[in-house]
Design a protein that fits this description.
This protein is an all-alpha fold. It has one domain. Helix content is 81%, strand content 0%. The chain contains five helices and no strands. α3 packs antiparallel against α4. The chain is flat. 29% of the residues are buried.
Length: 135
Amino acid sequence: MHQEKANIRGFSTALSPAEKLRKQIRAVLFVMSALTGVVATTAFFIADAKAMLAALLGGLSQIAAVLAYGRVSRFNGIPAPNAMLAQFLLAEIVKLVVALTLLVAGFILFGANALWFAGAFVAALAAYLLVLVST
């Protein structure tokens, strides 16, 4: 009898938590960037270039927070569960601090265009939640 070798390469490597997190962060950043572009384009056509800049920086403030989260939450190998949890909690705290700092700075900096800044910020935040719920 002739037996063919089974192709189990797709099943032999389990998706590690670190790899899953990297894929989620990439997806979140892609959707955040797209929604920020939509809000910034809308701001340009409805208001002016300053509103577009405010919207771009509003979305970028949320993108920067997710990038900070991704940098802090990185780990090599398979860490102990307690260490992994502590690292993710630290990353979440860093993300919140970065997001709140940039949010306050944006409101102070943009004044009259703070609505566009907040709109892009909220759109990017919604993208973050949408992608994490859908994956």
